[in-house]
Write a structure and sequence with these properties.
The chain is an alpha/beta fold. The protein has 2 domains: 6-125, Rossmann fold (3-Layer(aba) Sandwich), CATH 3.40.50.2300; 137-277, Response regulator (Rossmann fold, 3-Layer(aba) Sandwich), CATH 3.40.50. It is built from 10 helices and 10 strands. A 5-stranded parallel β-sheet has the order 2-1-3-4-5, sandwiched between helices. This is Response regulatory domain-containing protein. Pfam families: Response_reg. One of its GO terms (biological process) is phosphorelay signal transduction system. Residues 7-125, 137-266 form the Response regulatory domain.
């Protein structure tokens, strides 16, 4: 499949790791250019020269920690919408426990293997919907009837179980019921608009989930849809990420990107459940 000259930036202090991931991408994802950086300084130099479709990084770099790196990418370099994922051999949950690396779009555990890594990277680059979706229960929050109808049709098309709420207040009620201990199938993901009618905005809802309900990034991944103009509001994405969102997708939502992002976050939720069920 043609990728139209997309570029991927790999950041890792290990030359061996960079070589392995570069080889995997070249072998399994054709027409993608791969650049590599062994530290933040090299990464910033490349980011100033090229536009990337995806940035991957290890958690630890020799000259900077991941939180500083992502902050540099999002704030200093004003790269708002390019996905950033962390690739680590640490157990799932360590990022959340240490409250590190805000504004990251996803995490990948190396223990899942090379083929899963290829699939995960490709899901951010793919221009066609994934052939298979990861099952899960989605709570969808959108106050526009027109937008909601179009998005719900996409969710139905790809066989996602979902419940629609028209405002944040109703969504919060659904979430409280879902995680009260009486539900056999609690929600696996929240898909929400950021601008909602009512007393609560999308950011209010996200903050209540993260702080009021105490639900972490892996326990309930959150994908935000926004029509924010990054030029007019350059700090908009940063505010969304800092409120507790896992990922952002711009409106109008494109089917391949929506399904790929949903799959990524549902996989994160699945890994969380596997880890906690094993305890």
């Amino acid at each position: 499949m043609q990728k139209n000259g997309q570029r991927v930036l790999l950041i890792d202090h290990s030359g061996t790791t960079l070589a392995i991931i570069s080889k995997l991408i070249n072998q399994h994802i054709p027409d993608v250019s791969v650049d590599a950086a062994m530290n933040a300084q090299e990464a910033v130099h490349l980011l100033q020269r090229y536009k990337y479709a995806l940035i991957t990084s290890s958690r630890n770099l020799p000259d900077i920690d991941c939180d500083e790196l992502v902050n540099t990418i999002r704030t200093d370099l004003s790269i708002k919408s390019t996905p950033v994922i962390l690739i680590s051999g640490e157990k799932m949950g360590i990022f959340e426990e240490q409250m590190m690396c805000k504004w990251v779009n996803g995490y990948f555990d190396k223990k899942l293997g090379q083929q899963k890594l290829v699939d995960y990277i490709n899901s951010f680059l793919n221009t066609s919907p994934p052939e298979a979706t990861i099952s899960g229960n989605i709570l969808y929050v959108e106050d526009s009837a027109t937008v909601a109808l179009a998005t719900r049709n996409l969710l139905k098309k790809h066989n996602y179980n979902h419940l629609h709420a028209k405002d944040a207040e109703r969504a919060l009620q659904y979430l409280q019921q879902s995680f009260s201990g009486t539900s056999s199938k609690p929600f696996d993901l929240l898909l929400t608009d950021i601008q909602l009618e009512g007393h609560m905005t999308g950011r209010d809802l996200i903050r209540e989930i993260r702080h009021g309900l105490g639900m972490g990034y892996e326990q309930l991944p959150i994908l935000v849809t926004t029509s924010s103009n990054y030029d007019a509001d350059p700090d908009g994405p940063n505010r969304i990420f800092s409120s507790g969102a896992n990922d952002i997708i711009e409106k109008p939502v494109k089917e391949p990107m929506l399904i790929a992002r949903l799959n990524n976050l549902l996989m994160l939720r699945k890994q969380y459940l596997q880890l906690h069920l094993a305890k």
